[in-house]
Design the sequence.
């Protein structure tokens, strides 16, 4: 199967550690997954909020780039990019008017529209928790709060997720790494997404209870699969909240003993030190 | 066709419901006000109109109230409302349509959010990708919010989280063409 990787803009800047840890996990499983060549911004919230056609066509250019390279599948680690690409693919396949609009905007005829998966789904479905478990070098003796946010799951008729209110993908992977996952009720709440910059007061009001619920549930750390979730949970919390927030690929890096882990974690705005102290204490005990 | 309600305070737009239904593809007349959308909405407490009220006003044809609301801009498109609607109304699609209509009529509230979207898309149009330093710098200058988040910005810079040089795409011309060949849905006025 021909698989291409669509990192998206955040993974080349604010979420560089998500990009690097993703690539490290790919190599650990001997997967050669190159970037979609000359990819562009998916349009994010700004395009679909102000011009629906633009939102579809910007995302469609990336599908066209992948199609031109013969890709069957595009994997996107960012929840927002995934949502834009997945929706564009969904509508282009089902509605002729949208296909025509996109093909006209791009001057390109799709031979076929590649499938789109988010990274979490890809690892869960194609690599599988069982294969991940076999590679664990240092079991992750931690209590984790898995946080999905919105766009990896909703709307279910587009994402195809079986249980959008109670997903298991991230828990399955974290448990394969040796962690235990806490039960908590904010797993699929919204982090405030791109309102963070323009309406930070609102986003603080959305993030604080999410972080508080994870702490109350007894978690040592929160795990995410989205650069916006990770950034908002770090930046828009209350200053008394100290719990670290990881990308799930970083924790795979820790448990699988992948090269570069320390460098990724050094980029976090909230220190990840206490988690490593706990891990070390667990090993010595 | 525009109508006034009996007290003469509200302009009603008789085919507003049809136009929003048509543009969004959502069965808005099925709504029976169970308010699940607003109960689950994480932004509802900050909204001037709750999502269920927006649906009701669309049914009334109160286009001014809907399109001039700040709510349509505070919606983060998290899609919780649509996931829980017993009548299969994807409210996020409705919000997108309302935002587009408000912009084409030039009556959009939520000025800072609209400004942010414009600068974001200008950046994508010229570079092909988003570039945070350019985006944040421009937004700060144009919104006058110079001092917000300076510390966190500095921290991100020091942690190597902000790329200095803007990306350059080979397909920038094609990206520009996408901008020129796509257009906003209209239908805000009758």
Sequence:
């Amino acid at each position: 199967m021909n698989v291409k990787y669509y990192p998206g803009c955040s993974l080349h800047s604010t979420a560089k550690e998500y990009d690097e840890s993703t690539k490290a996990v790919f190599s650990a499983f001997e997967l050669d997954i190159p970037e979609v060549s000359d990819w562009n911004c998916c349009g994010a919230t700004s395009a679909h909020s102000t011009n629906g056609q633009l939102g579809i066509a910007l995302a469609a250019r990336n599908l066209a780039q992948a199609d031109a390279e013969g890709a069957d599948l595009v994997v996107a680690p960012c929840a927002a990019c995934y949502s834009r690409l997945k929706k564009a693919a969904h509508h282009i396949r089902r509605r002729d008017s949208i296909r025509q609009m996109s093909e006209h905007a791009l001057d390109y005829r799709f031979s076929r529209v590649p499938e789109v998966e988010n990274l979490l789904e890809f690892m869960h479905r194609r690599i599988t928790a069982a294969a991940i478990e076999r590679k664990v070098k240092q079991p992750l003796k931690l209590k984790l709060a898995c946080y999905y946010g919105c766009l990896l799951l909703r709307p279910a008729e587009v994402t195809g997720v079986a249980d959008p209110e109670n997903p298991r993908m991230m828990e399955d992977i974290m448990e394969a790494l040796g962690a235990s996952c806490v039960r908590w009720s904010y797993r699929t709440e919204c982090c405030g997404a791109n309102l963070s910059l323009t309406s930070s007061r609102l986003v603080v009001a959305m993030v604080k209870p999410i972080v508080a619920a994870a702490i109350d549930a007894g978690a040592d750390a929160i795990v995410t699969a989205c650069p916006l979730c990770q950034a908002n949970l770090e930046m828009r919390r209350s200053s008394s909240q100290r719990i670290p927030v990881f990308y799930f690929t970083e924790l795979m890096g820790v448990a699988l003993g992948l090269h570069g882990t320390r460098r990724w974690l050094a980029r976090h705005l909230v220190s990840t030190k206490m988690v490593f102290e706990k891990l070390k204490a667990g090993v010595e005990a | 066709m525009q109508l006034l309600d009996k007290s003469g305070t509200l302009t009603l737009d008789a085919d507003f419901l049809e136009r929003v239904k048509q543009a969004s593809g959502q069965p808005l007349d099925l709504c029976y006000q169970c308010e699940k959308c607003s109960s689950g909405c994480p932004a509802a407490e900050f909204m001037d109109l709750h999502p269920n009220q927006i649906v009701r006003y669309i049914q009334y044809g109160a286009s001014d109230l809907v399109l001039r609301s700040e709510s349509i801009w505070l919606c983060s498109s998290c899609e919780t409302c649509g996931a829980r609607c017993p009548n299969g109304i994807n409210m996020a699609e409705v919000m997108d349509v309302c935002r587009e209509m408000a912009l084409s009529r030039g009556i959009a509230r939520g000025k800072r959010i609209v400004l942010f979207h414009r600068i974001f898309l200008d950046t994508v149009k010229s570079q092909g990708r988003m570039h945070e330093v350019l985006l944040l710098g421009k937004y700060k200058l144009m919104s006058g919010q110079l001092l917000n988040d300076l510390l966190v910005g500095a921290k991100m810079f020091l942690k190597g989280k902000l790329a200095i040089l803007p990306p350059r795409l080979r397909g920038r011309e094609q990206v520009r063409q996408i901008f020129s060949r796509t257009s906003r849905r209209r239908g805000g006025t009758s």
The radius of gyration of chain A is 19 Å. Chain A touches chain B through 62 residues (CB under 8 Å).
